[in-house]
Amino acid sequence: MLLGEILIGRGYCTISDIREALRIQKSGDTRRIGQILISMGKITLEDLEGALDIQFKRAIKY
Questions:
Q1: Which residues contact residue 39 at a Cβ distance below 8 angstroms, ignoring those fewer than 6 apart?
Q2: Cβ 34 vs Cβ 10: under 8 Å
Q3: pLDDT tens across 18-46, in order?
Q4: Which of 5, 31, 37, 50 could form a disulfide with 42 if both were Cys (CB 3.0 to 4.6 A apart)?
Q5: Domain range holding 8?
Q6: Residue 61: what are its φ and ψ, rounded to 5°?
Q7: How many angstroms separate the CA atoms of 22 and 43, rounded?
């Protein structure tokens, strides 16, 4: 599962927030999407850590 899907599903940010972060990334920003969302003030570090934990746990099930 993609990080953006988890963040949206948990209510931490919106699809518009994800699209904006991806736009910033595509314009040459080398930061990861989570870092961009934090700098935008859309999520907290704790939100990101929780979403990454979910993503990791789902990945190791496969």
A1: 31
A2: no
A3: 999 999 999 999 999 999 999 999 999 99
A4: 37
A5: 3-60
A6: -70, -20
A7: 15
Separation of alpha carbons 17 and 42, rounded Å = 7
Tokens matching residue 10: 């948990």
Phi/psi at 34 (5° precision): -60, -40
Host H or E run for residue 4: helix 3-9
Q: What is the DSSP string of 6-48?
A: HHHHTTSS-HHHHHHHHHHHHTT--S-HHHHHHHHTSS-HHHH
What's the domain count of the chain? 1
59 — pLDDT class (breaks 50, 70, 90): confident
